[in-house]
Amino acid sequence: MKTTFAATLVATTALAGAALAEQHGEKMTIGITQNNVGVDSYQTTYERAFIEAAEANDMVETVVLDAGGDVARQIAQMEDLIQQEVDAIIIWPTNGEAVIPAVRKASQAGIPVIVTNSNIAEQGFDFVASFSGPDNITQGARSAEIMCDKFKADGIENEARVVQISGQPGYTTAIERAQGFEERLPEVCPNVELVETQPGDWNREKSQQVMEAFLVKYDDIDGVYAGDDNMGVGALNAAKAAGRAEDIVFVGATNFAVGYEAMEAGEYWGSIYQSPVDDARAALQTAIDVLNGEEVPFLNYFDTPKITQENMGDYEKPVF
Amino acid sequence: MTDVTPDKIVSPVKEDTPVALQRRKLIAQGAIWAFIVVELIFFSVAGEYLSVSDKAFMDFENMLLLLKQSAPIGIIALGMTIIMINGNIDLSVGATYALAAIVLLDSMTWPWMQALGDSAIPLAWGLALLTGMALGAINGLLVWKTGVDAFIVTLGSMLGFRGLVFMYNGEQPTSHLNWTLVDFAEARFLGLHTATWFLLGVALLLWLLMTRTVHGRNAYAIGNNREAAVNAGIRVGPHMMINFMIIGFLAALSAVVFYSESGSVNPNDGMLFELWAITAVVLGGTKLTGGYGSVVATLGGVIAIQLLRKGLGHIGADTQTVNLVIGLILIAVLFLDRQLNRKGKQELRT
Questions:
Q1: Which of A49, A61, B199, B305 registers the highest number of CB atoms within 10 A of its CB?
Q2: Distance between CA atoms of A98 and B268, rounded to whole angstroms?
Q3: What is the Cα–Cα distance from A145 to B122, expressed in whole angstroms?
Q4: Are A86 and A29 in contact (CB under 8 A)?
Q5: A6-134+276-303 CATH fold
Q6: Do B266 and A95 touch (CB under 8 A)?
Q7: Which domains does chain B have, with CATH numbers?
Q8: pTM higher than 0.80, yes or no?
Q9: Does the predicted interface ipTM exceed a cut of 0.90?
């Protein structure tokens, strides 16, 4: 009886103490300025996951902003967040270089900056607490491996010709995914030729038009590498309309639901599994860890595995 | 009979007698500033409840920041005002802005420019501004010599100039981060940011141009009635060309001010700037048909838009909502404007 009482007392005191600590502990205010939320399903899901993760955490308040793809607007939002004296800023850069002075301003104001999804250029690294996101170069490189492995399985690794549909011009993500692919492909399949690269602007319709032009221009296309599955499926649709989809291996650099479905249908070969939910949670967690004074690696990558028709059963369909 | 005929000829002039013009000007200019006051009150009150920030929206620093953030579109919108008073429009300003930015940043990486050290900076500015003026001159010359509507000419040049932007450096951003330049752009003189000084300076110069010079008076005359202006001996073609050079220069100046601070230009930068500039001009009460408008009211329009963006962000609304609200307000303003004018005309008739 006595012990129970004592135990209860201890437990309640501990609970009260914890509650007290929580009340008195400063709530963290974290501001985020995103790239362009409305433009694709990845960014839309990212924003939703970010807000959900923030709401689930009582210690965190967030200011969620979106630059709408406009650099000037993003810099203004950075200035606004600095002015509002938030505790940390998460930025999804519209331009990896143009935002550097704004990031410096935040760092000079003593506000840690966490870059999410696509990193800023090296000159700005001094002003950044951590980068949280996928490794786009690895994603591009792994896409090259997927494509090469498939060519080898089909026995055409010495003659195959590949076209590339890249993401929106100017975006670090687009540049790095292209770079990773272009560097890795000759290493694993030295005789495969990348014949042409055109931007598809992360847009399915644009990508379809680009592929239509490729199909007219080249009689022999064995592989299409797209900056993401949205564009990859656009290219697939163009090839299907021309009746040439059967002969072409489609690989994307990020798996989307449309790509997953096309893989189920056996029309699309493979991609890289990158979850915007993981991406958003990782960014928020990195910011919280930085504010709590924990050691955080400067390049805080989350893993993005390969997904092909062969192993897709291990992965759930992407929500975006 | 003799009563009716002179009255018909005189009537457009009568509408623009100094007193009537002054009154209309006051209403139109007052409206935008009243709107700004309403926005300030709304966001201050709503901010108390909805914002997670402890800082008040009307914080002095925040208002200074507002002026600074208005500069990129503001400088262009001020120039757009005189183009629209002419009865023209310039859709190519966004592309001109991007091209001038590329010239600014890329020229500083040329070996002989780099050899000059920091004295290359004013030279790079000069090159960018010259680029803007040259592009504006092309627009002006085409409008003057071909007689094609400015809407079509600048629609073409918008696409053409944007093409040049992509030809310059493909899809890659053009970058040159120069900390001296950044420090200059971030500097503050008498509390105001560098960009704010440029915005206010341009506003003052254009206001003087439009209200104190023959060129300004001619601009209104041409917008009101081009034929009458020609008959009155105004050289309409060269006049328009000068105005297009002014806006080309200002689009480049806007780029110079902005990219001095950011140091990198995406090939897509400046897209839709023409529409934001036109929105600001129209919010300020300038007529799309020309002949009427005010540089000062445009400054109000620019500030009103930036206030909306900033204020809605402050209370936690997303970007799509911001665009929706600005769109609705624009339509409401045009509708109100039409109603007011109709009333004005009826008053004149009686």
A1: B199
A2: 13
A3: 49
A4: yes
A5: Rossmann fold (3.40.50)
A6: yes
A7: 19-349 (1.10.3470)
A8: no
A9: no
